[in-house]
Amino acid sequence: MKLSRTSFALMATLLAGTALPTFANATVTVLGWPGGSEETALRATVETYNKQASDADKVELLFFNREGFYDKLQADMAAGSSAFDVNLVATYSLGRYAPYMEPVDLGAGAAKVFGESVLKTMQFDGKQYGVPTDLSLHFMYYRKDLIDALIGDDAAKKTYGEIAQKYLGKPLQPKDPDSWTWDDWAATALYFTKQVNPDSPVRYGTVLQMKNLLFNMMVFQSLPRSYGGDWMDKDGNVMVDSDAYRTGLELYKKLYDAGSSPKDSLSYEYAETNAAFASGQAATALQWNAAAADLTSTEKSPAVAEMTGIVAPPTGPDGRADHIHGLGLGLNKNAKNKEGAVKFLKWLATEDAALLYARSGGSPALSPDVVAKVAKERPDLVKLGEFASKYGYVMIGATSASALPVYELQAKEFTGYWSGQQSLEDALAHTKAGMQDLLQK
Amino acid sequence: MNHLPDAGSRLGVRRVWRIDMALVTRAEGRMYLTPLVGFLLLFLGFPAIVNLIYSVSTVTFETLRSPVLSGFANYVAVLNDREFWSSAWFSLRFGILTASAECLIGLFLAIFLAPLLSKRPVLMAPLMLPLMVAPAMVGLMYRLVLHEFAGPVPYYLFEWFGDSPAFLDINNAFRTLVVVETLQWTPFAFLLFYMAYSAIPLDVREASSLDGASPFEIVRWIDLPLMKPTLVIAFFIRFIDGFRVFDNVYALTGSGAGGSTTSLSIYIYQAFFKEGAIGKAVAASVVLFLASFIVLHGLNRLAGRRKR
């Protein structure tokens, strides 16, 4: 009887414990971008902030999956959620979330740390809605050892030329990656494909991110962009069925069908691409700049770290193009602790915080004076600033409230073409009709 | 055929009920029921009414509190949408295949392992472990396990055979998803079948054995008929779970290349969040609810008729 009473009491305590709300120590809740170098950097930065902050201003981090992140955020914010005080925003979704957020004054120092043009990636209707934490664009990662060996070997050059002629219809010769056209890149990828060239030292020539996911369309679209492609012309007409998009889509399919990219590429996104390149079995990869810290780290990518080269995406008839957008943190209109949240955001915009964030693996776009202080540890950040200013672009319509649904639509239709479920004509016709509906309504 | 004990016990129940009714007045009974009715109205009735209104309205995230009635256009859009029907077909195939595989393997394991488990019941714990893992986690786990450069399965296939299939490409994604679902949920069917199998009195089996029945005949003519209600229930529970699948499919392949692994739940999710077509998404869920209700009601009636 005694035992059952004790058990009963324990059970009741357990049930009461689960039913009661938990008491958190932190009073500023920050919803960050999960799963990448951004999360690692934010965790490290917040740890330092919490050491100096008063109990009332301490920050607690909240992360959920990248999959459907913006959908969940939209539902939460539309419902007036106060579950977080500070939330993630991106350049391409700022217009969608600004109605649920409050502008924040970061002070004059912020411009010195980031520069006016970078601060603008977090502005909507002329108001500052967040601290720009990361600038995202793409790097062409390649294996220096493989390319050097190819360029220095006459027999290999001959095979390269034959492969280029057979698959691309052009007699190409190996080149330095910094002067690649998209055809040069494709020929290199084909040359390093075991299925095409059994003598290739690696299994795949490249890693294509082809999962039905909106972010993969951002990686892809620099290819049609360098051929003059855009979402709309200056008069607002959707022009996704252009030759530029055709060329880009066909080149991706040609490489995938030839076995130049892993067989499961149709389920690949950021993490899978990193794993594939880091394994040492791929010669090139067009990947987000955020991956640079991992792919050049001897600890994280021992097989390739010292042989990984980084250049801007290849060039096309219209020059080089590199998709660009900013991620940042802003203030939720329904925040419970606005005062603490603003304190944290202002601190995050200081030089010390930005440098700490950079040293912890984040990718802030910093002004030349500031970036010079981390250039030794993070040479990729210097490239980031350089590529963004030289090749950065935003498609017409890609900052509208419909930008995310447009990317979703492209992801579904283009992956349908790449997987052979529909023709190129159908994919482009469906995309055009959908984009007209989304962008012109 | 002696009906007397049944009739007697039924009479007994009625008598107790009458005594209870004398102790509890009708008004008091209603009062006791109020919290339950209130709970149901609040947590099931209110969302249902809101959903019905949204399904005949033009509504967006910005106008959630002020939808504009627009007739049955959302229902027409759903029924004319090719993707709705392809996702319904995906869900139906997925539900039937996974439920069948789980029940067949679960039944085999329950009968095959019964002698061992009756002596070592502790072995039940590891067999139940897959049920403890959240389906989304299972999806993520297989994303890693099947990855060509990070996963153990392709690694050993390359080691042994020099090649590995593309588990998640357009040709194999459906099969992979079925296997993943079956591996996780077979223990559920197994648990139900093992309990039903253990509940069959041993003397029935002994009697049939004495009459000369072979082990196969005992399973065919004694065990399976006695386990039939559990078999049916397990199949339908697993079918319903498979039909409404979301988590592990979404984590593993998303909606698939060109939408090839879009289940009905994913279709509704995408219409709601990705397209912002709230009315269309809710209309699809109402259509799904009506179809499920008709099927379940039909099955219920069928089961009732058989009992009689």
Description:
- The complex is a heterodimer of chains A (441) and B (308).
- Chain A is α+β, with helices and mostly antiparallel strands.
- Chain A has 20 helices and 15 strands.
- Chain A has helices at 2-19, 37-52, 69-78, 94-97, 109-114, 116-119, 144-151, 154-168, 182-191, 214-220, 222-226, 243-257, 270-278, 292-295, 338-348, 351-359, 368-371, 379-391, 403-418, 424-439; strands at 28-31, 59-62, 86-90, 101-102, 123-124, 127-128, 131-136, 138-143, 284-288, 308-311, 315-316, 319-320, 322-323, 325-332, 392-393.
- In chain A, the strands form five sheets. In chain A, strands 1, 2, 3, 4, 7 and 14 form a six-stranded mixed beta sheet that branches.
- Chain B has 308 residues and is mainly alpha-helical.
- Helices cover 77% and strands 1% of the residues of chain B.
- Chain B is built from 13 helices and two strands.
- Chain B is globular.
- Chains A and B meet through α3, α13 and α19 of A and α11 and α12 of B.
Largest sheet of chain B: 2 strands, antiparallel
The geometry of chain A reads as globular
- Broad structural category of chain B: mainly alpha
- Give the count of structural domains of chain B: 2
User: How many helical elements of chain B?
Assistant: 13
Rg of chain A (CA only): 24 Å
The assembly state of the depicted protein chains is heterodimer
- CATH classification, class level of the largest domain in chain A: Alpha Beta
Tell me which CATH architecture of the largest domain in chain B applies here.
Orthogonal Bundle
**Biggest interface, which chains?**
A-B, 38 and 34 residues
CATH topology of the largest domain in chain A: D-Maltodextrin-Binding Protein, domain 2
* Name given to the CATH homologous superfamily of the largest domain in chain A: Periplasmic binding protein-like II
What count of domains describes the coordinates of chain A? 2
- Sheet bearing the most strands of chain A, described? 6 strands, mixed
Backbone CA Rg of chain B: 25 Å
CATH architecture of the largest domain in chain A: 3-Layer(aba) Sandwich
Uncertain segments of chain B are 1-16
Low-pLDDT regions of chain A: 21-25
Structure summary, number of beta strands of chain B: 2
Shape of chain B: globular
What share of the residues of chain B does DSSP label as strand, in percent? under 5%
